[in-house]
Amino acid sequence: MTQTKPREGSPKALRYHRVPQRDGMKLVRLWVPDPSRPDFIEEAARQAAILRGAPEEAEALNVIETAFDWPEP
To answer: Looking at the record's lineage, which domain of life comes first (predicted)?
Structure first.
């Protein structure tokens, strides 16, 4: 049986995986809800309607804005 050499990726692809890996990160793939599905859109609208005007709305928006403004490494 012969051993085959692993395929080499492009330098950009290798950096994409190796730099974070070197920094202690691990690539994880997740299944997430599809936001283009009608049932997802309906549920998002339902939850937004519940939150609209509630005292928790300002806190939730603050969390979202903070995450959006998170500094790049």
So the answer is: Bacteria
